[in-house]
Structure formats: C-alpha cells, structure tokens
Protein 1
Amino acid sequence: MNKIFSNINIKEAHIGGALALSFVLFNVIFWAYPFIWLVILSLSDWRFFDVPTFTGLKNFFIVMEDPEFWRSFWNVIRFLGFYIPIVLACSLAFAFGLQHIGRGKVFIALCFLLAHISSGVAYSLVFTKIFSSTGPLNTFMMDWFGFAIPWLSSPSMAMFSISLVVTWKFVGYYGLILYSGLMAIPKEIYDAAKLDNTPALTRLFRITVPMINSQLIMVLVFAITVAFAIFTEPYMMTGGGPMESTNMPMLVMYETAFSRLQPGRAALMAIIIAVASYVVIRLMRKILEKDVELV
Amino acid sequence: MMKFRKKSIGSWVITITMYLLALTWLYPYIWMVMASIKPTTEIFNTSLFSGSFTIENYRFLFDSAEKLNRPFLKSLFNSFFITLSVTASVVITSAFIGYAMAKISFWGRQQMNNFILFQMVVPSMMLMIPLFILIKQLGLINTYSAMILPMMMSGWGIFMMSQAFKGTPNDYIDAAKLDRASLKQIVFNLMIPLNKSIVAIVALFTFTGTWDNFMWPLIVISDVDMMPLSVLLATFSRQYGVYVGPVMAGSVLQALPLVLLFIVFRKYFLQGMSLSLK
C-alpha cells in the first residue's frame, strides 16, 4: 500500500515539476526576457529599426530634462490632490451609509460596484459626452444655477473632472473595504465613548479613523497606484490636454515610445514611474500606518 | 421612546439617501443606453426619457461603419475570441499549476511560490514596451497571438487557486488516486467542482480584465480588422466623434457583456472583491 503511494508520489513529483516548469518557461519568454530588454533599452538609443547603440546614462539626462515628463509627475500630485479627499470622503460616507441600512444593502452595494466593473473605454466616452459643453450636466447647471462649467475644456477643471470620473469608478470598491473595517470595530468602544459624552466628531477622529487605519492605508495604496498607472481615462477624455493639464506619466511614456519613437527613453520612464510610485507608497505607509491593537 | 423614534427617522433618511445615490451612480449607464437609442440631434436637446427612439445608431454602427472602414461586428468577434481564449487558458493553467503548488511536493516549490509573490508586486506596465519589442521580434504584431500569448498564464490565478486548493482535504485526492484517477481527472472532476467559487472568481476577473484591456491592444494592433472592440471604438470616436449616437451605441456594446456578467455572477464578484479585504 505504502509502496504504491510512494511510487505514485515520485511520479507525481515529476508531474508537479513539469507543471511548474511550464510556468517558468512562460515567464522566461514573457517576463524575464522583456525585463532584460527593459534594462538594455533604458541604457541605449534605439528607434525600433536600427541596432540599439549603448549610450549609458544619456537617456537618464534627457528624461531628467524633459519638461513634459516632469509636468506629468506634477499632474500626478494634482490628481491626488483632488482624488484622495473626494474619494475618501465619498467612500467613508458610503461605508457609514451602508452600516445604517437595513434592507437592500446588497442591492445598493451592487449599484455602486457596477461602476467598478464597467469598461474603461465605454465610460470614458460616456463621461466625455456628459461633461461636454452642451451635455446633460451643463444643461442641468444652466437650468438651476444659470452658468455652465467647462468640465474638460479648461486646464484648471479638466483634472478635477477626471478625478470625479475615477471616483465614480472606485467608490463602491473602496467603500466596501472601509465598510469591512467599520464592521470589525467592537461596539463597546462607542458605548464607552457615549457614556463619557464624547462628541461625534471626536469619536470619528479618535476612534473610527484609527480603528480602520489598515483599511484606509489599503485605499490610499490603491489610490496612489491608480494615479501613476492611469491611462485610458485621460487618453480618451482629454488626450492629455488642455495645455498638458491632464498629461499623466503613462501617456507621456506611450507618446515617447510610439509617437516620438524613443523606446529607450520610454523604457527608462517606465522604470522611474514604477520606482516613484513604490517610493510614494512606502513614504505614505511610513507616515500614516499604525499598529492598532485592542487591549 | 422619543429617542427611539428619532433614530428610526434618521435611519430612514439615510436609507432613502443611499437609494438615491445608488441611482445617481447608475445615471451614466442609463444616459448611455438612452443616448444610444436616440437620433444624434436629439441626444443633447431632450430630457433623459423623452425624444424619439430609433435603432438607427446601431444600424449605422454595423452598416455604414463598414464604409468608414470600422468593422464593428468583426471587432466584437475579436473581443470575444481574445477574451474567451485568455480566460479559458488562465483558468486551466491556473488550476493545474495551482494544484501542483498546493498538493504536490516537488523540488523548487518554495522558490516558485516566492517568485509568484514577487511577480505580483512588479507593475506590469513596466514591461509593456519591451514586451512590445518581443512581440515585434516574433512577428506577431497585428495578430490574435499578440493579445493572447502574453496573457495565457497568470501568477495571480495560480496563487488564488493554490490558496483555495490547500483547503481541500487530501483524503479526497488519495481516494481518487486509489481509483486510478489521472491528474486531469483529479483537477477537472475533483478540484474544480470542489472549489467552484474560486474558479469562478479567477475566470470572471480574468474575463473583465481582458475585455477591458485597452493600452496593450492599442500598442500591438493597428489593423482595424484585428482590433478588439475597445480599441476600434476609441479610434472611431477620435475620427467620427460627432456621431454621438453611434459612439454611444458602441459604448453600450462594449459595456454590456461586463454588466450582464456582473448581474448574473454578482455573488462571485462580491466574494472575489471581499477576498482582497483579508
């Protein structure tokens, strides 16, 4: 009996190894090989057709002096400046609201999550029309307030509008994350605070926010990742304009590689963007992350 | 008594507000569908549910869009073909390799586990340009393979499946082996049925991710006949954006499969999303 099993096990180990090997092989081709190219590219001058020539750090100096690239990082900060407060407030409100609903909780969550599942190209087109100068939103503004807003055509508004769209997409998901955090807070803490007559705002900032610290951090990590990786929305809605006000790093990378035909510089940009987003996330965690323990 | 009443009024207000907000969140979808069945001239001039309704926009998309060299029917087929191929491949490879990772001890398993975890943190956008070069070197630009091959296996899928498979008792597998079940039979007739929800989650999220993928096909496909719907729709809207009605009809086509999938399999989507909460 045991012998049969041990024979099977040896045979199995081979099968397991073979299966694993297929994944390794796949990654050698579609992951490791591109990775090596990434390094080579970032150090060479190449235009897709000729032979890459090694230029060392030349790409680095060119990218460092590229105002468009720096502008895109400034745009990431602008995006986060709009996006983080709006999306945090909305998803917190969503999570609190969900807590107080008796019936139809799942239905409401699904309505919000439907936005999360939708296709980027489709909703970008829809919002372009909704935000357009004669679109339904401006018609509504004209009827009720007597003025229209240049949602996508003004350099100061376009980024705000895009962050609204991204908020629309992610509130359901972020809200669900925060909601799971809220559900984990023991009710006794609030009861004790109420006995001490702690005002509601103090309860929010002294109990709720610290207790859902890990969920908030998770939401912030997602938000920062989105800010550095966003492509479809600005590409479809503004094309990076007006006046480069929504030109995000991914767009600059795409343009550099395929319009300016400088894949080497674009590869280096990709590395810098990845490192930057990693550093920003680490910094954020270092500043805001706290080990909350219930004693 | 007084306090009790006050609270219940408050929670009623919250409930009604939440329902209104939920409807607001659906507004873009509703507007998109309504715009797609109105003549373009009426889209911006009529209120949401009024105006004359036609299917002209859809006809325009499928008929005269051909004359504008925008084969939408073909692109719809392309999207389905690519998405279903990638989904099937990811589910099957993840199930087999996930089974190996969970239930077979072989040399290098731990290293492989570490590699998968490492790979999941490296942003895929970093490799996009060199991957394009690889596809170009292989002569696969403007082919289905360009959109399918690099996505055929997924570290995330393997990770999810192996985590779930670890929970399946070994007794079941041993019993199957005593009955001389082959590896294929164990995976297809035992592991997949027993871990239905995780398989569904991997399949659904792979499907939505591939269907929604825009940047990668935009880079590797320039032939309109090979474009998936997302890219064709984008190029169509860039050139013929004034045809708001047809553009919205195209958006409906692009959004609809995901919406239907979400409504039908909402249970698994919710489960999948809450998996990442732990």
Protein 2
Amino acid sequence: MVPERDVQSEELVVNMGPQHPATHGVLRVTCKTDGEVILDCEPMVGNLHRCKEKIAENVQYWQFMPYTDRLDYLASMNNEECYARAAEKLLGIKLPERMEYIRLIMTEAGRLSSHLMSVGTYGLDVGAITPFLYCFREREEANHLFEKISGGRMLYHFMRIGGCARDLDDAWIQRLLEFLDRVESKMDEYNTLLTWNKMFQERTMHVGVLTREAALAHGVTGPALRASGVDWDVRRDDPYGIYHKFKWSVPVADGKYGTVGDCWNRHWMRALEMKESISLVRQAIDKMPKAGPDDFQPVESPHKPYLAKGVPRTMRAPKGAEVYVRSENPRGELGFYLVSDGGTSPYRCKIRAPAFCNIAVLPHITRGYLISDLVAIIGSIDIVLGEVDR
Amino acid sequence: MDTKEIGALLKERFGDDVLDVFQDDRHGHVRVTQKVFVEASRFLRDDPRTRFEQLHDLTAVDWIDHFEVVLHLCSLSKRLNFCLKTRTPSRDDATCPSVTSVWPGADWHERETWDLMGVRFIGHPDLRRILLPEDWEGHPLRKDEGNPLEYHGIPGIAAIRGAEERLREEELANKTSRAGGRPGPDRAPARTGGDA
C-alpha cells in the first residue's frame, strides 16, 4: 500500500495487453490509475474465444476429446481426464482398475509439468529469468516423456472415453521414475533461487491479498483458494477415481510467511503441490496392478487405442441424462456439465473453467496497489487464456 | 445429505414453489419457480444444514420453448454438492432473476450466459457481453442460431462456402471456354458438393 500524498494527479485509463508478455496470452486489462496507483481495473477476456461448447454440440462424444486439450493447454492430460470421466459417467462405462492407475499417473505427472511452468514463468513475470530456465529444463524432459507415450508434446489426445491411447510399458515407467528423482533433487534449487529470494519476497509478499471470504464468495478454486487459507481439495474431500487409496497432504497457507492470500503464498502452494504430485505418482506406480484377462479389448494394431471391455463403438447416452463432473486441475476445479438428448453428441456441454472464475476476482485484489504489482498479481493467479476464453 | 433431503428442506420452506425433485445415479436436481429462485439460493447459502458458500457454476440450457438456468453449488464446510434449476417463462421472454446478490461470483457466469445463450438476468449490476465483441448480433449457443455471413468485412463460414462454390463454377466456365464449347452432359464436373 502506498501512503497518502499531498499531490493529486489526474486519473488516467491505461490498457495493458492484449499483446503484453506478462498477461500470459491475450488478456487485456483496462486500469484506471492515479499516478502509479491502480484505482480500478477490469480484465477484458474473449480474444481467444473459439466457441468450444458449440463445437461439442456438433461432434460426437469421442470427437470432442482433442478439443479439450486446447482448453488449458499446459495441463492437457487433466482436461482430457475430466472430460473422459464425465462422458463415461453419462454413458455408463466402468473402468478397469489398471486404467484408473494409468489416469492418476498421467494427471499427476501433468500437474507436475504444469506447475513447473507456472513457477518458472512467475519468476519471469517479476524479473527473475534464471529460475525460468531451470524449470524449463525439467519441463522439457516431461514434454519428452509425454511425447514418447502419446506422440504430442503439449496436446496429447492420450485419454479416450473408456481407456487411453496405449498401455504404459515398463521402460517408460522407469524413465518416469528417473525423471521424478531428478525433479525432486532440483526442487530445493528452485526454492533457493526464487521462493526464499529476498527480492522475490519483497515483490510478492503482502501483495494482492485475497481474503478467505472473498475467495469463497467469488468461486475461486485450486491453489489460489488454498493460499487464502481454505483447506479444500476435491481429490481428498470429494474423491474421484482412486484418490481415496493414497495418502498425501494438501498444502494450505497458514500465515507463517507473508499474509494469508497474498501472491507469495499462491506461488508457495504450487511449489509444495509439486512434491505431493511426485509422491502420488510414485505410490501409484508401486501399487499399479496388472491388467486382468477380461479387462481390456485386444489391441489389434499399434494405432488402435487401449480400451476397456464393453466400450461401445457408437456412443449414445439415454435421453435426458445429465452429469456434472469436476476434477482438481492445476489451476483449480474444472467442471464438465453434459446434457444428452439421446443422440451421439451432447445436447449441451458447459465447461466450468477454473481460470475464468479465478481471473474474475482480479479487480478486487488489485485496488490500491501499484501497476508493477498488477503483473505480480496476474502471474500469481496463473491463468491460461485458452481456458478463460474457451 | 443428498439431493432428495435438500429437496425436502426446500419443500418445507417454500412449499409448492418447489416444482421437481429428481435424483438418479448420474445427477440430481431441484427445480423451483422463478418467484422463489433468489430466496431459495439465499436459504441454501445461509441455512446451517446446507451452507452452500460457493457457486461452482451457472449456465443455461436451450430447451426450444424455454431456457433452463442451472446452478451447481458446493458446500465446503458440509461437503455437499447440489444442483438448483429454474426455467425462464418462455423463449421470447428469456429472463431470470440474478443471484449476484447471493454469490458475487455469479457476475461473470451470468454475463457469459447472457452473451452466449441470451438469457437476461434481472438485477445484474452490469449485464454486458463478455466473450464476444460488444457489437455482435445474436447468441451463438441458441439452437436456432445460424452461421453469420460476415463480421466487419471478415467472411463467415457460410459466406466462404458460397464463395467456394462460385469459384468452382467460374473455373468450370473458364475451362469450357478454352476448350471452345459448352459443357455437354458428359463433361459435367465430377466434383460437386462437399466442402473441399
């Protein structure tokens, strides 16, 4: 906060973006400023709008899967998993246990890769270039791993309704474990470079404070909600898949460092969540069962997906059926609301994007701070415009 | 507590204004009249048995003769999920009371629903388009919405398809004039229709 001054200047409206590197895409923020102080601001979204929900109504259930990759393109695995689960619930498909394990491994590895990106670019936003390069070194390896299994570096199209593109083989799992060891050993390096860096703390601590009440009222989810001191994680509190079988801790800001709900705590939650994801992947690999004889359809060629037995070729949901499924994505809770009219494509598909709800809170947490803080606040919310605009 | 029990709570408080309590293994919802929609929302948020402090999602579905506004609520302290619905009076009168006074987070969701589906939320402080440009005409998620022909000189998909067909005809005409004659029935183009 800036102390009151005697000099009064004129109010000025400043546009930030949509081609501003610190807005993580094509976000435009209109700020009403007095000198360097932000009096009010408004995020203008929609530059990347592609009408995904309309597309979903015009393609079959399975055809929409690649489009979900393009929502939050830094965590494509997590989007795919959520959509696959929504469609499976609508169509009444049950998954074999091994498939649940594959999904958990892939989504948690996806979360790790996504958080590596957010932690690195957050450093870049506030002027620290080195951690960005360090994080990208590891993220590049994660991309290679995903490319090896799915064929895509960022847009995987790995999950299928009732299965996935291919089974995980032992060689790949070995590589994944080695990668996890390497990332874990580097984790302290990131924290020394960035999290405990005095300059970084000066820029982010006590800045952009989102109170617990405001976070709940505005529907903020994910690391931003936990940074505001709300102990809530869908994976633990409303478990889906096989999360109930594992033990891990959910990091919540406790006010030991900085203020609860400030930018630093939002960053810190992500740094802690990376460790939990690593632990979850390791536990899942340990316990992963072999496929039963009647679990999966025979894979006739390497180009055919690895599907559970009983997944129909033509997917048709009962008339009037609807589902709402949500999952804990790296950026918050992603939700899919699907309504069927008995046809082969959804009658209505609504995507509840976490970044869309999180960025809506921006005006409430920027008032009274400086323009340079705005960059730090946007970075700490960690938005992906592909998801905001859909 | 499941949807049926919450439905019973609402029935106890609002009586006949609770129109429908439904639950199956996929999804459950309670539908109320517009008259008590905001009141029921506030009741669900404040009642110590439910405490839905978070509005998870707000959207609308186009059912041709009316729109259905769908709210997904989440209670973090009670670990509950719930779906509340209400219908607009008719397709032409696509209005619904706004719940921004109950959950401030409904602001952007309602703007988006107005923008894409054309449901007007009465009592919303600033109901403008959010994802589409201000001067866009129509609401694309409505079932009767066609493809726009053009927007500020940018041709839409319908216009592009028309232009492609015209181009194909011209090409054909050029070919036939070079060949020095009109196309007979045997020279008719093999490639017709499709999007090329």
Protein 3
Amino acid sequence: MNKRTLNTALFYLVIILIVIPILFPFVWMLMSSFKTQVDIISWPPRFIFNPVMRNYQRVFIEQDFLHYMKNSVIVSVSAVALSLILGLPAAYSIARYKQKKLSIFILVARLMPGISFLMPWYIVFSRLHLMDSYIALILSHMLIALPLVVWVMSPYFDAVPRELEEAGMVDGLTQQAAFLKILLPLSGPGVVTATTLSFIFSWNNFMFSQVLSQQKTRTLPIAVYNFLSYVEVDWGAVMAAAVVIMAPAIVLTMFFQKYVIKGLTTGAVKG
Amino acid sequence: MIRQGFVEKNLRFLFPLPAVIFVVVLMVFPVGYTFFLSFTNWTLTSGRPLAVVRLASYIQVLKEPRFIEALGRTFYFTFAAVIAEMVLGTALALVLHRSFAGKNLMKTLLLLPLVATPVAIGIVFNLFYDPTIGILNYVLSVLGLPQSGWVSDAKTVMPSLIIVDIWQWTPMITIIVLAGLAGLSTEPYESAMVDGANSRQVLFRITLPMLMPTILTAVILRAIDALKTYDIIYSMTRGGPGYASENLNVLAFKYSFEYFRMGQSAVMLVFLFVIVMAFSLVVMRLRRAFEM
C-alpha cells in the first residue's frame, strides 16, 4: 500500500469517527421507536430485536398526535407566512436605504431572551382571553420568524443590482410594483432560505407553546414532553413521538441543505 | 419617467412600518412592562394588587442563594459548552476542508443535530443517561469503569447537559468555519509556499488568524444562545436534581409560571436581559470592527 492510499484510508477512518457520534442518537431513537418496552429496558442494550409498530399506534391512535401535529403546522406555517409579509418589505427597505438602525432594532428580537417577553404576554393574553388560542401562539412564533427573515433577506436584496428595478420603473412600474414583480421573483433562493430556517425554529419551539397553549392548541414539542410525565416512562412510545416530531425538520433540511447552510452562515461570513 | 406618488416618496417609512409596529407591540412594550414589574412585589396568585416597592425585589432576589447559583451556572454552562464547541467545531472544519467523495452528504449530516427538536433530543439523551438501562453506563461497565448517575446526580448533571449542547451545536461552528475557509484568499498561501513554511506554521500563522473574525462571530452568536438555554435543561431535568441544574432562564421560568412571583421573576429577567444584551453589543462592535 502506498502512502497516498494509506492517507485516504486514514482520512475516511476519521470521517467515520466523526459520523458515528453525530448519527448515533438518531439511529438509537429510530431503533427504540420499533422496540417493545422489554427490549428497551433489557440489559445489555439490544441491537437486534423484533421490530413492532405498537409504539406508533399508541402515538397516533391512543394519543391523538395528529391533533398536535395539525396545531404545529397551523402555528408554524401561519407564523412564517405572516413574517414573510411583514419582513420582506422591511428587509427591502433596509437594503435599499441602508437603514442600519432599523435592522439592528429588528434583529434585537433574535438576540433577546424569549422569556423576557413571555411573562408579560402571559399576563396580557390571559386578560384578553387569548390563552390557548392560535392567535397568541402565532404572534409569539412570529417573533422567532420575523428577525430571521430580515436577517437573511436584507443582505440578499442588497446584492441584487438596483438597475433591474430601475429598468422596470422606467417602463412605468411603481417602486412597490417593481419590488413585487421584478425583485421578489429573482429572490427565490433567499426566500427559500428564510422560510426553511424560520419554519424549523418555529416548529422546534418549546417555551412559548408551553406557556401559551393548552389542550386545544398544544403543539408537538409539548405533547412529546408531556409523554414523559407518566409514572413509568413508556420509552418506545416516547421515541416514536420523538421520531414524528423531528421528521419534518430533517426532511426539509435534506431537501434544502444548500439553503439552510446559506442561512446559517449569513452574517458570520462575508461574501 | 419615474412616477413619484405618496407611496413611492415614503417607501422607506411605509415598507418597514408593519414590522416595526409588530416589534414595538410584541417586544418593546413587553420588555418595558417587565422592567416595571421588577420594581413591584407582585405575586399573581396572592390576589393582592401590585405595589411598587422600588428595589425591594432586587434585594430579595440578590439574597436568594438559588439565584446566585443559577447565575454562576449560566456562565459555567455557556463558557464550558461554547469553548468546547469552538475548539471541536474549528478542528472538524479543518479536517473536512478538502474535496472528498461524500462531502455533500457529510454537510447534510452536520446539519441534523442543529435542526433536530431540542426537546426530543433531550429525551433521547435521557435514555442514554438512564443509570439502569442507559447505553452509556453499559459502555462504562464494559470498559471496566465506574458507572455514573449522569443527569440524576447533582455532581454530574451539569457536564452531562453540556455534552448535549456540544453534540447539538458543534456542527454549527463547523459549518460556519467551513464557509469561512472556502472564502479565504489563496495569496498568503502561495507566498508561504514560496517561503517554504511547514503545515503547522501555515495553520497557526495564516489560516487561523485569517479565520478569526468568522470564528469569533460564530462563537459569540452561539454564546448568546447558550446563555438563554432552556429547552434541553427543562426537558431533561427541569432544573434538578434539587436545583442542581437551574440556570437563569429555567429559574425565571419557574418563578413566573410555577410560583407566579412576577415581581421577583421580572428582576431575574432584567438580569438575563442585561447579560444577553451586553454580549450582543460586543457582537455588533466586533462585526463593525471586522467590516472595515
């Protein structure tokens, strides 16, 4: 074996050593979701077992996870859509008119601890009888999504040459029409990035829904967490619930890998 | 001819207006209200109206050992997790910065921990950490090492939680540093080759210094989130055993929504807020410094 092949072999060995710890929790979760309680609590831990569907039946039939899933979809999709409606024009204005202070003002919402507004929201939403309402949850999740939309989109709009809009305006479009008809269609990839990232962070949010939702509007992360409060933990069902809640974010990431990376590196890396 | 109606002339105010109103109503007012509450002794369940007590709640909170411990733990968690993530994350990026078959797949794998729902991750790690059925104690016993109580033992709970944070967020540093590496100019490397520098000199004298702005920004963004860690801790331990893993966010949450001591909770929120904002100001300063 020459030195080069040896190097390559060593490199892939290192890669495997990196991949195992990253993947192991996912693999174990998936395996456990098909195990009976006996297989899960057996010592030593079992890698080979008879897969059963019982845990998923329990999650979807006995626990009505479809209801929580529907809630999660309603809240995340609405919060992201409304944040795009508010955030895209704001991001455009920040990019075109170099409104640095405005951008910092909106981005502060990304940095602030969510709990410092959650307590006042709790008081106000209770007074307004909006506890356990979709409106309260959607508004709270918008505070997650909106700063992300602005964070991703203002550098994106900034990079599109002004001449494109100006050409449209010379042809008689108003500036707002030029934004809608020329700039936005060109910004598809940026919008995909902003949408994917803000959807994932809204989908995963635990604290806001924990306080603002009850049975009617409860979202998946709280439903999964509540599974644990039984006296004896039904690990298999909990793992099946964990698989269900993570699946959408993971599938989205696989489809939009390039965009997610773009979004995560915006701001930290120049260019 | 470019038309200039009312909307066009005032676009710079009209376009951001809805977003600004939203942020003012949902963030600025609530934060102001929290500041106000911190000067009261209001307890939601007492039935008494709130009374302004000036700094009395601050004094009560500062005398509360649980608060001081939570404050210390917030910094301990943040520094330990973020330093480990910075070192590991950068090292991983340096290893992966070359072209190899499967690199794209590797990037996707790196994204999985950070898009995974923290509550679900917490539950999976609880299964790993379980003292009687967990795979980690099994591995320790196979290696002939003493078993650990992991999150159920006050002595080991913080490191166990930090490990989860490291697992989840190291890949974010790696992804950002990889993007930074891809954007480095090649000139300094060419002159280093001419000067006959060895690979260690290249790493410490060229690569790392040029990467520093990227690494720092990533690390500080990460630190801001680590200061606010809630999901992982609450879902794995609820701040226990006892109070052994309460950080500021978890403690403030309990004061607000379990004890309903709004006045004192508001004081804690003010502290958390000030700490996070101080860190954030550093980020903005740094970014401005590097943008020159």
Protein 4
Amino acid sequence: MANTAIELVNVSVTVNHAPLLKNVSAGIPKGKITALIGPNGAGKTTLILAILGIIPHEGEIFFLRDGRRETTRPRIGYVPQRLDFDRGLPLTVLDFLTLSSQRRPLWLGYQQAKRDKALEALREIGVEHLSERQIGRLSGGELQRVMLAMAISREPEILLLDEPAAGVDVSGEALFCEFMTRVQREGRLTMVIVSHDLSVVTGHAEHVICLNRTVQCQGGAPEVLTPENIMAVYGPHAGLYRHGQDTCIHPLHHK
Amino acid sequence: MESLFATIYSFLDTVLPFAWAASLFMKRAFLEIMLITPLCAIVGIQVVNSRMAFFSDAISHSAFTGIALGLLLSINPLLTMVVFGVLVALGIAKFKTRSDLPMDTIIGVFFAATIAMGIAIISARKGLTQALSSFLYGDVLTIAEMEIAVTFALFAVILIFIALSYNRLLLTGINEPLARSQDIPVNIYNYIFAIILAVVVTMGIRTIGILLITALLIVPPASARNVSRNVRQMFWYSLFFAWVSGIAGLVISFYTDIATGASIILTASLCFLLTFIISLVRR
C-alpha cells in the first residue's frame, strides 16, 4: 500500500445507461510509469477522466499519502488526447501556460515568476521557441508538447497523459522519449499513460493495466506484456518492431 | 449625490466644450455610455471566446417578458427585467449541466418560451405595447442620475470579479475538461458569469435596446480579435473600440437624429469592417 499512489476500488462509469467501465479495481504504483492499454472503446480515457473527477463514477478512487487513503486529489497534470478549442483565439503559448498559474489578469501583463516558470517548462519539453506563437496555429504535435509543458509547469505529483504520442512527429517523439526516460530516472512523478502505442508501453512502462471495460490483467510490465495477453487485449494482428538505434521501440499499429 | 453630479457636469463642461455636450441630458448619456460600453466589452470578450452570443441574445429577449411582467404587476419594470433575465440565464446554465441536448437547442427552447410568454402578456393587455417600445430601441437620452450611479456600482463590482477570475474564466471558455483538470470550479464560474451577463445585458437595454444589446457585447471584442495577437491586446482593443463606438455613436446621433443605440452599433460595425480589412491585409 505504501508504494501505491492511486487505488481504484470497484470503479464503474455509466453514461446514458451504457456501462463504459465496470468494477475496475487496480492500484497505480507511486513514482513509476503505468501504461493503461486496451482497444478502442475500452474505457481508458473514461478512467482518466474519472481519476480527474471530471466524470461521475461509482466506487471509490483513493489517493494515497504516506499509506493513508485520501479522497482529496493531489496536484494532477493532465494532457488530453485532443484539445477542442476556438483556433482563432488570440492566445499565445505563453498566455496559455500562465492562464492557470497566474491570478493577476493577463491583460495586466505576466508576473515575472510565473512567466519564468512557464518558459522553464517549455524549455524542458524543447518548445521554448514556440512561446510567442498563437496556440491555434500550432501543429498537432506542437500542441501536444505545449500541453505537456503546461501539465508539468503545475509541478504535479501525478501526471496523466492520454495518447501523448498521437500526432507527434519524429523529433517530437524523440523529445517525448527523452522526457519519459528522465521521469523514470528521477522516480518522483507518478505517471499514467493511455496508449495504443505498444512501443511506448514496452519502452518505458514499469506497470501495465490492460483494460476492456474492466481490468483484463495488471502487473509489472514484463509479466503482463506477454504475447498471449497482448493478443487477448488487441487481437491477433498486433506486433512490435524496433526502429533503428532509437531507445524507443516504434509500433506496428493495431488495425 | 446631486452635488457630486453637479461637480461632474462642471468638469465635463471644461473638458468637452462642444455643442453636443452642452445639455444636461447629453452629459448624462455620455456618462452612461462611458460606463456601459466598456462593461459590455469586458463581459463580451468572454461571450465571444466562449461562443455565447446566442445565450446573450436569449437573455436580452427575455427582458421583453421581464418588462411586460413588471408593467402587468405594477412593479418597477427595470427590476423585473433584471430579475427575470438572471432567472432565465440560471435556468439555461442549469439545463446545460443536466441535459445531453446541444447548448443552442436548450437556449432556443428558453428563447421561444420566454418570448411567447411576453407576447401572451402584451396581447392580453393592449396598453402595454407603448411602454415597451422604448426598451426595444433603448433610450439613453432619458437616463436618470440614479441609473448612472447604479451602472457605476455595477461597473466596479464586475470589474473586481473579472480582474480576479479573468484567467480562469478564459481557460474555462477554451476547454472545460482542461479547466476542471486544473481544479477550477467550472460550474461555479459558469453560474456567476451567467448572472453577470444577465445583469449587464438587462442594464444595457436602457441604452441600446433589446434588439441591439448583443451587438454591443460582441462587436467590439470581435473587432479586437481581428487585430490582436495575444490576450492582453484583445482586452485593451475591445475597451478602445467600445468607447470609440459609444462616444462617436452618441455624437453622430446628436447631429443626425438617428436613434443613439443604432448609431453606436453602426459605428461599432464600421470598426469591425475596418479591422477585418486590416486582418486580411496582414495575412
């Protein structure tokens, strides 16, 4: 228990009488990278939204501090799979990052400390050069990285990433892998990654939860990621291949 | 309060030594416009960024029923207009959290129901039609000192709220789930903003009228969006275009006998056209 950051007890989500999640019970280890895998419609994003408290659920979600169960959420960084927003909005990347951290209205300018912190987060993800660009003019990959920078600028205890590699180009993917490796090395952040991308899972995840409305299997990555389990979750056409000398393994996407 | 206004009028005589600003009713209209136009612009920025123009239109049209109710029940129609507008805004906001219907459908239902209710009241009591017409087109030239004082108080309270919550409101408008994930109490902000919007819209009706108040909310921020590159510029340009439209509209109406509300919105629309051309040239 002391090594668990989030404990899910019989979590169920029903929307319009349709069960999206049913009795999900799982533990997410502290300071490690947990991959949430499963086919389309398995309820991966729904589980992330339930952890965030955005979607109502039955059952209990506990956040553990010093082994004690608490229902108040710690600081969570979240990167959604896709950000739907008004692309014509005159909002720079730096505006976007300071929106949630700064109380002084942005029309009175940035607070120096908040501005520095936002720039530091952008630098960490390798997108400092985008700070003055309007967010509506970013590519999908650039936006993902900016959102990752926004999430880490909150100095979260838990980071939830929903399909972080989707739409990211090759250089973006390399930066993302570098970030994951660093997080793994430091071991301070509890990270949950939703991914279809088995390369991210095999390359970085230390813990894996296979989901298909309910938990199919969970445990340490080497034990869970067996060909039998992958076939049971994704079907017979999933596979993996290594790409060049990269530290990351790239996927043969499940069709 | 009388001596305060006397001081303000004498100050205006010094800084605005023009024929259009000579009479007392024009000074009052000027003061009201100096307050209500930026107030509408500040609230309008969020309306534009959160795509709430139809919501604001429904509230302004609900004022029609609020006024009719006030006249029918012999209560001050300005009061019933504001209260009814707030109730409609809260009703829409509540429905939004409980229904899977698209937002514009929910607003459309409220819009139709409140207008039908207003028509039902005035058709049953024929004498009310005359009293309603000044609210349809607005009548800033008959504004009273007490109304200016109320607008000033409103301006101060809303400015404080907006200053404290501007960034969070903006993030909520950009994407609600993202705002929720950052521990922003989205529902509370939405309700408070709905109340503020209802109060500003119904207060602005005295100046601009039911038919045009939404335009005063959205046209200056829309013009600002055409030429802004960041949040700060959008805010200040919105205020600038709102003031320019308000004062130019008042002066034009003095010299041409056009209804003040209409001339303000025509000036604001001209600003929009010019800024739109600038945005095309910049591309």
